[in-house]
Design brief:
This protein is mainly beta and 112 residues long. It is built from no helices and eleven strands. The strands form two sheets. Strands 2, 4, 5, 6, 9, 10 and 11 form a seven-stranded mixed β-sheet that branches. Strands 1-3-8-7 form a four-stranded antiparallel β-sheet, with no helix packed on it. The chain is globular, with a radius of gyration of 13 Å. The termini are far apart. The mean pLDDT is 96.
């Protein structure tokens, strides 16, 4: 079974940083583009970023461009999201996806 488990969330002050991880199993990780989504309370899911099979530069939503960086380690079957200059509006459950499968999310709260 495909399993995607995000971790690394927590509470941080505005302007702070966090690094999220998504551990993947049950499929050949290096064969798939991976994406991050987030869902704020009461809101629809929002695409955040995607990264190709071999890594390199990701693509980003305008709302996070220049602040968030996505990367991957295919040897560890792990996807990352490094988030800088966090804002209260970044508060959401973050989760990774591939090929229509949504993983378990991790909660990020940005608050003073």
């Amino acid at each position: 079974d495909v399993q995607l488990q995000a971790s690394g969330g927590g509470e941080v002050q505005p302007g702070g940083s966090l690094r999220l991880s998504c551990a993947a199993s049950g499929f050949t990780f290096s064969d798939f583009t991976m994406s991050w989504f987030r869902q704020a309370p009461g809101e629809k899911p929002e695409w955040v970023s995607s990264i190709g099979r071999t890594g390199g530069a990701g693509i980003y939503a305008d709302s996070v461009k220049g602040r968030f960086t996505t990367s991957r380690d295919n040897a560890k079957n792990t996807l990352y999201l490094h988030m800088d200059l966090l804002k209260p509006e970044d508060t959401a459950v973050y989760y990774c996806t591939t090929s229509g499968t949504r993983g378990q999310g991790t909660l990020v709260i940005v608050s003073s």
